[in-house]
Amino acid sequence: MSKTLAFCLGTAALSFGCAGKPAAPFDTLKTSNLTAYRLQNNDVAAAIAATPATPGATAPVIPGLDPNLQNAITAGVQGLQKLIPPGLQIPGLSLPGAAGVPGVTPVADTTPRFQTFRILAQQQVLDNEVKEDLGALLGDKDNFDNTYARCAPNVFFPEFGLSFASAPGAQSNDLLVSLACNQVVSRTFSWPYQSTGMKIGTHADLNELLVKIFPQGT
Question: Does an H or E element contain 161, and which?
């Protein structure tokens, strides 16, 4: 073998080795404690609750809702208000324009959530191969390109969440995955790349891994 060929092969092997190491913090994912969450990506109840009632309002306006459906909701609220005696407060139900009963504490929302999104299911991921594949996929900047992101800025609807830490009690690395928006967004650490949009192959590979974690029907 010529010295030139040997040098080229050695350089190629070295480059492959460097490129094969996931970017931090994904380089520790294989050996970390990983919890995966399946999330409700569009919590309508929370959106309605977050809309302040105004005097004379009949129903909260839900952004993007079809006007005909909005009118139906308004009519339903008006009908419900007529059936409830004045001053009566139903725990967990807030009607526009209805004053709370003095001395009655509103029922606290105890819904389990991950990064403010409602948790539908969660799994402790013990399969090291799955964790390694996730680390390799998320730890490669070439898997991301913002031209593939589908949602407008500041609009994000995650269906999944991942949280991993190197040791019990250590700071967790939390991120949200939106297959609909085709994006991955970090929540407790600095995203290592400029792009958060997933390429077509990245989307398909990540979806396949998530199906392994949450088989159909779970």
Answer: strand 160-165
